[in-house]
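Sanity check

After download, print the first record. It should look like this:
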Amino acid sequence: MFHLLKKQSKQTMKLPFSISKVILLLVGAFLSTQALALEVTATVDKNPVMVDESFILDVSADDDLDVSAFDPSILMKDFVVGRTSVSRQTQMVNFNTTRITRWSTVLIPRKKGRYTIPELTVGTAKTQPIDIMVVPVSQSSNAQGRDIYIETDVDTKKAYLQTQIRYTAKLYLATDLQRGSLASPKVDDADIRQIGKDKEYSEIVGGRRYRVIERTFAIIPQKSGHFTITGPLFDGEVVDNNNSQSFGFFKRTKSVNRVGPSIDIDVLPVPDNYTEHWLPSDFVQLTEEWTPKTGEFKVGEPITRVISLTAVGLVEEQLPAINSHYPDSVKTYPDQPETATVQKDGNLIAQRTESIAIIPGKAGDITIPAVSVPWFNVVTGKTEYAHLSQRTIHVVAGAPSTNTPPAPLPITDASGNGSDAAEHSAPAKVIVQQGYWSISSTILLILWIITLLLWWLQLRKKLNQSKQTKDSVKPDATNTSALVTAINKKEVADILPLLTTWLAGYCGKPNQSLAQSQQQINDTELNQHISAMLATRYATKATDWNKQALINKIRELEKNNRQKTQQISGLAPLHPEQ
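Expected structure tokens:
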């Protein structure tokens, strides 16, 4: 009896294990059945398609899936991938529920030829590949009347580094446009900006009238080599004339997408024999204005000289500082330079303006040295110079202000006896005139003294501010530490202001720009490191530059500055003898 109970107990212990095993098998079979039941299909709305024409890729799955289950980025190699819309649908018939998830992606072929949309993985299933034939845009299709297309063009397919390439895109419309947007062209390692406003006009192509919207861009490449400019993408809605259904005044619209043809360009590097500041252009000019404009100036009276550097096809960041020199017999007070980039006649025009106040310290002829700015002529391929000729100004001593009262007129009586009348009446008249001129002279003298005092106080304030600013930006351990930290992080936007302030303090001129400090230091190795760093400013892809080499150069300059400071035995006089 005990043996039978023991045997029955063992069989009872095995029963739960068998039930759990059966449940697991059933669940696994159900899941595998569901996985096998998932079906995914891919279709296109047109085939073949033209090279700049969009088509729709529809991917459908018979289940409720996550939005991210389909990723169209695998198609970017051969197509321009537009927007992707997702829709879900649920139906229930006789307690049988059907769920469908659909992805619709806009695709535009990049070039003519035969392409294959590969197997697309969605969830646990894959679609069948689709062969797509992309045909070129023929003249016959234009004759039949294409409703929308884009044309692109450049003014040159070969340009030097950092020179402007004028890019023109024309959108042709032969149907009513409800809305639309035209994107910018795309190219690696280049600065792209629109020039001017859109132009709109009519043009007849193949006997059909088109509305043309023309847009111009300036493309400034920041790297040399061979590049492809990808045409701009148009995304819009137009009236569907093929659809007869309408609601009163409202007509049905349809979405359209077009892309402009790509253009290949070659960017030439800086010539090996060119050693100046890289300023490539087809026109560079230096101009100056003097205030006052008279040819004779006075000692102590300020003269304003405004020098402007203008370059075509460049942006303001590319312009160097204007290196002007002055003799020791004058004092100069430069203002902060002003830079600007304007657009004119489809070109970018950059301008840098520097204003200098000049105060002559002695009379005589003063010679102002010539000013030259080197630049590279992209037309001739040679180095040229924008030039301001040497100028000699004549300075005269300031004339003292004198107010001498005029002599009193003789007074005659009715009898014509001037002497007797003067004896009796002249004293009263003379007293009145002397009092009038004495008051006027005193007032003018006081005003002149006040004016001179105010001018002297303002000049002294500017000198004190300049000295305090110079002392505040003098390189020290704190400034150097912050600069080195920024360089280690390789954030060019943070490095530039710190490096500009540090080099300005090193040069003893706190208000000057980075380019001015580079010219004053004149260190080839330093300039190379800075140029390598600045080359990454407009790059769309990450480029590498030697941060440690730049840090070592900063440490070397800091060491040289300490050695020079230790060798100085005294301070220079505040007002050196002229």
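If your output differs, re-run the checksum step. Summary of this record's structure: The first helix runs from residue 2 to 37.
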